[in-house]
Specification:
Blueprint (H helix, E strand, L loop, with lengths): L12 H5 L21 E3 L1 H7 L2 E6 L9 H14 L4 E5 L3 H13 L2 E7 L5 H9 L3 E5 L3 H14 L3 E2 L5 H7 L1 H10 L5 E5 L4 H15 L8 E7 L4 H4 L21 H11 L2 E5 L1 H15 L9 H11 L8 E6 L7 H5 L14 H7 L4
Parallel strand pairs: 2-10, 3-4, 3-6, 4-5, 7-8, 7-10, 8-9
Antiparallel strand pairs: 1-2
Helix pairs in contact: 3-4, 3-7, 4-5, 7-9, 8-9, 9-11, 12-13
Bound molecules: ligand F0G.
Length: about 350
């Protein structure tokens, strides 16, 4: 029996936005129905700022991060062009996403990750989807250099965001935001690592203004971890270090595009301490019910820091992309919390009531 797509089933970002994507005509979509993620109103941050603050919850994508938007595009094109194997360097999310889309397309996934610096959930995803995982004694930047070298010398297609097709898929997040709000927000905040995402958002917003779907552009503000903040200092970090391992990148591939996004929009890059990032992660989970991985909270931490520094956002609209799901890295989320369970009781109502302080 052929499934009939119902009128309300989101088709994935290629079919929803095919006429706006620069991919070869007739490319069949390899999709897990990514995109169409919720824009959740943050009562907590709206209350603090006097702005309307929205969270673009990208952890709701099929493999739990925004990477699926670019990966559906990159894998679809690679498969259409006859690739048999694909390779990527990753801090974890790209590899999880690539592995899933590659096997769906019948391609062999090869993953290069920095040894010991990948959250367990992401590593599990790559392994369970059947990727060949190679751990590199080095950082993400080393992995990307090797991935490029492999793709130049061997029959494997590179699907990192240096592959322009990735940004084509990722720019659909801006389209969704404008389609939902009816206009671009005043500000867009997001974490920045290898800098593909901020570049893709900026491209998407600009294209929507050019086609008349939006009448203005947001101010783009990117946030990095203090120990991996090349876009803030203007210099590569040879030894990037942060607990937000997803953005542990010292020499971003899309450096120039990201600078253009911040520069042209009147935005900026700001560094945050790991403590600021982790505090924002916890506050977001306990206030808004949205559990994101550490790196994904950088935009929220950035807004809190801006408020602390005396900036005013009253009356504006702010979209913050929270890029990946909290379940990918529970170890970091629970670090330092001590005893996780308050009480262990006998199996009866009275004991539970007493332990809960109800009597
Ligand atoms: N947030 C998360 C959860 C990420 O995984 C990444 C990047 C970013 C933000 C930053 O996005 O690189 O486009 O600036 N992760 C890459 C990876 C590096 O390999 O999964 P970016």
């Amino acid at each position: 029996m052929t499934a009939k797509p119902g009128p309300h089933q989101w088709r994935g970002v290629i079919e929803e936005y095919r006429d706006r994507l620069d991919i070869p005509e007739g490319t069949p979509a390899i999709t897990l129905r990514e995109g169409g993620t919720p824009l959740v109103s943050s009562e907590w941050l709206s209350g603090l700022t006097g702005a309307q603050v929205w969270l673009k919850v990208e952890g709701d994508n099929p493999t739990g991060s925004f990477k699926d938007r670019g990966m559906t595009a990159a894998i679809s094109v690679a498969a259409f062009q006859g690739a048999k194997a694909v390779v990527c360097a990753s801090t974890g999310n790209t590899s999880a996403s690539m592995a899933a889309y590659a096997v769906k397309a019948g391609l062999k996934p090869l993953v290069l990750v920095p040894e010991g610096k990948i959250a367990a959930g992401k590593m599990a995803q790559a392994i369970v989807h059947g990727a060949q995982v190679i751990m590199v004694r080095g950082n993400f930047d080393d992995c990307l250099r090797i991935a490029r070298g492999l793709s130049e010398n061997y029959p494997v297609a590179l699907v990192n965001s240096v592959n322009p097709v990735r940004l084509q898929g990722q720019k659909t997040a801006s389209f969704e935001i404008v389609d939902f709000l009816g206009e671009a927000p005043d500000f867009h905040f997001l974490p920045v690592g290898n800098a593909g995402n901020i570049s893709a958002y900026w491209m998407g917003y600009n294209e929507y203004v050019a086609s008349g779907n939006a009448t203005r552009l947001p101010v783009m503000r990117g946030f990095q971890a203090e120990g991996a903040a090349p876009l803030v200092t203007g210099e590569p970090f040879p030894n990037p270090e942060t607990k937000a391992t997803a953005i542990r990148v010292g020499n971003p591939a899309s450096w120039k595009l990201a600078e253009a996004a911040a520069g042209e929009s009147g935005g900026s890059f700001t560094a945050l301490t790991d403590n600021e990032i982790l505090a924002a992660q916890h506050k977001l989970a306990s206030s808004d019910g949205v559990f994101v991985e550490p790196a994904s909270a950088a935009g929220v931490a950035g807004l809190l820091k801006a408020l602390e520094d005396g900036e005013s956002f009253t009356g504006t609209s702010i979209v913050i992309t929270v890029t990946g799901h909290g379940l990918k890295d529970t170890a970091t989320a629970l670090e330092g919390l001590g005893d996780l369970v308050d009480n262990i009781v006998d199996p009866d109502v009275e004991s539970a009531a007493a332990a809960a302080g109800l009597v």
